[in-house]
Amino acid sequence: MIKNIIFDFGGVLIPLDESKTWAGLEALGASEELKDQKELFRKYETGKIETRDFLNEMKTHFFRKKIFAGDIATAWNAMLYTPLPGEVIDQLRKWRKKYRLFLLSNTNDLHISEIKKAAGPFDYKMFTSSFEKIYYSYEVNDRKPNASIFEKVLAENELKSEETFYIDDNKKNVKAAEKLGIKAWHLDPEENSILGLDKVLSKHHS
Fold first, then answer.
1. What pTM, to 2 d.p., does this model score?
2. What are the beta bridge partners of residue 7?
């Protein structure tokens, strides 16, 4: 019996288009090597580097000598091209009547600040209040697919893995959850919608 649901954020609850970010960065004169700066991105995603320092480090990977941090931030956030969908917020509030809901996201300060701004204080509060607890990677200094971040959510909230369901659009993260005994759904946003979750869950309740 599923009693708890852990949601990923981007690609599951809101659409993402990373190509918009890379197109924006390239238009500003980003070098090809910027895409290889995975360690820099991981540091920012786990809160080990501040936004100002992250943007300054990003500047070193552009051909243009004069590049503004604000322009880089705008391009970085371009993947977040729509506000929080109202139908998703409505559905979350229905699900929380039946399940304990949690949010677990690999994200960063710039993205969350942009989401708050685009949604507005009321809708963002409606969204976040649907969850018992929210885990943003940059705030908890850990990220998926590390087992430790899943174990943290389970332990802090006294969740049993066999009673917990996890949804993510990244297969590596889904496999990491499943290794801990958590039931999981790899949601391909091109083929499925989170609004179809009830149908998926019904298989685990039958």
1. 0.95
2. 103, 167
